[in-house]
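RETRY 2/3 - previous attempt timed out on the joint model. Re-submitting the same 844-residue input unchanged.
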Amino acid sequence: MVKKNAFYAQSGGVSAVINASACGLIETARQYSSSIGKVYAGRNGIIGALMENLIDTSQESDDAIRALRHTPGGAFGSCRYKLKRLEGNKDEYERLIRVFKAHDIGYFFYNGGGDSQDTAYKVSQIGDRLGYPVVCIGIPKTIDNDLAVTDNSPGFGSVAKYVAVSVREAALDVLSMALTSTKVFILEVMGRHAGWIAAASGLAAMQAGDAPHIILFPEIPFNEDQFLRKVNSSVKDYGYCVIVASEGVRNEVGQFLSAMSAQQDAFGHAQLGGLAPFLAQIVKEKLGYKYHWAVSDYLQRSARHIASQVDVEQAYQVGKAAVELAVKGENAVMPIIIRTSQDPYRWEIGSTALKNVANVEKKLPQNFITQEGFGITQAAHSYLAPLIDGEDYPPYKHGLPVYVQLKNIPVEKKLKETFILT
Amino acid sequence: MVKKNAFYAQSGGVSAVINASACGLIETARQYSSSIGKVYAGRNGIIGALMENLIDTSQESDDAIRALRHTPGGAFGSCRYKLKRLEGNKDEYERLIRVFKAHDIGYFFYNGGGDSQDTAYKVSQIGDRLGYPVVCIGIPKTIDNDLAVTDNSPGFGSVAKYVAVSVREAALDVLSMALTSTKVFILEVMGRHAGWIAAASGLAAMQAGDAPHIILFPEIPFNEDQFLRKVNSSVKDYGYCVIVASEGVRNEVGQFLSAMSAQQDAFGHAQLGGLAPFLAQIVKEKLGYKYHWAVSDYLQRSARHIASQVDVEQAYQVGKAAVELAVKGENAVMPIIIRTSQDPYRWEIGSTALKNVANVEKKLPQNFITQEGFGITQAAHSYLAPLIDGEDYPPYKHGLPVYVQLKNIPVEKKLKETFILT
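RETRY 2/3 succeeded.
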């Protein structure tokens, strides 16, 4: 095997553990120095390749690379940029080939979700169709847990843990005060298309009456009457009501509730408001309860301080496996997580063809949501619980986590022409 | 000294460490069993005393009491209820005396902020003015850090740490994505009257250009032009802008910005919206940047999982000191934290008269805010940094923190008449 350099990039929304995959990949590539030369990281994902903005990771110390394992965010920058179809958009692909050739890149590692795996799949076609051989390996990552084939996606377990821990804690606060103050608390979490993250909040409950009392899923059309009845019965039975709402909740005709909130604004501010305050308003107007609401937004997906140990380890292992697959001669594949045992939870790394995951969205199974539509079933609990297991604390200094800032030294450009992103 | 029972109650907004004070108090009272009989906790603060709803903490095991140290929320329930002046409202005070007499209560421990210390101070006057001797000790607690005399208030350090950690983490996320996605991130934090919590977010920055780039304080009138200029220069200089906004930010004529957001609503929904989405809207309309916003609300004050070790220890020690002061014969006082050394940080417990802290609000010093009005000074940094130092993790099981649920066994009522809260 001729020794070639590798390209690695992070794509789509980042997570608390995508850098753990980068760590696994770079550490492993350094061990395979007979097959893999330097690992060049794309600055801001695939855009880094198109713009020939490459970062020379060989200039980073072993300690710095090791620290990626406990550092959230995307150390090389990420992007929301999707390659178009090869047909009719040859320019982008030919540019990629020129950059790869110029820097002797023979491996393409792309770390992201379903859209990003589509990009990886498209790049894998260059070899056959444009005559430039490049080994393409996808690396799974998404907090949304909606990647197909793999049992779960690195990034999800840590958000799930953040949400479950936060709900357990906030519920104790609300319960303490409910007699004379707030009775209803609403937490809005991420999940525009699928309720995986909202579902994970259900892990916070240990027995009947525990929070969350209501989970609102994108999969279940919002029915105001049923919702209000449930809020009311929760307050009557338990003294308070904790609601976890997925940002993607829709009404019975398919409109996002968050958008309805905006529609009611006199100025037509499309993004003002949001789901949590909208739900709070309904509760106040119809039931008169004092409420509070929180929107965890980026806090939930960057919260490395409360990452799941299982998630961190899986993120590392898929990065490592990507290199091992490449060195073994595999191409156009993505490492996946396979659950080999439920109790005790055991998992191993396998792989699947990129075409099986590109642009495929894994839905929350119907049997994960209770008949009533406001909670999770035992099946969901069994699936979700192992994914948040274990703690993996970052190091601290002066009370704050120590996250690494890489030097990110650019690779000298070799191409004369500049490329304009379209 | 005749042995008497003690009454302990939690008051006002709870925190991640108010139960650590309860732990310190109950554990210490158990050591002084020659002076103090049982510790009766008020169910929901002073309301528990008025309604004769007492909890017998002697029925809790040592292990359960020890676990209070790492459990957030208020284990006995809290309340927002302020005793009126003795003049013209003798009923409430005479009721308290009847309850205290019925249960042989000679010690009154009240754990809360400035309003609660006012209640403790009023109760301390019963002895002289209504002829029932009761030892009254306040115990400081407030996430707002606005209690007078004490160097800081237990509860604040943990919120401060939560906010600083969250900003450091979210900033890495935003920075990763800024080229093609979100450029401006807004986190709304608590602090209606004083910017202590918002100020603490400034600890997240290590060097120029680090987040938070803008802190909005209640102390500084909001100037839209200056704000937008600062957002813009941050995006130009660093590629992104992280804003931490105190919920109590007001405009130049003293209106809460969060209320202005509500005023713009077509339906006059007074609580709809909130500050973070309001600021986001300004940024979008005037600068066109893509934004995200979060509101941490109760999550910040219940986040025991990321509590400050210094805060937990101080919370425990003020609970312990309250008992020691009472046993020593002190009355109408509150333990305080005294900073005896800045570098290295050292502190000890002292005390002050309740009248010095009742209804007094400690403001953020002017020299803690930069001239420009959007950041904290070195003086603020020096004051704040030690308060978030050290981690104090709760135990975990199956990936979730194990928080104690006390049995909270009620003390049998002895009074015939019921009391109606007014």
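DSSP finds 14 helices and 13 strands in chain A. Closing ticket.
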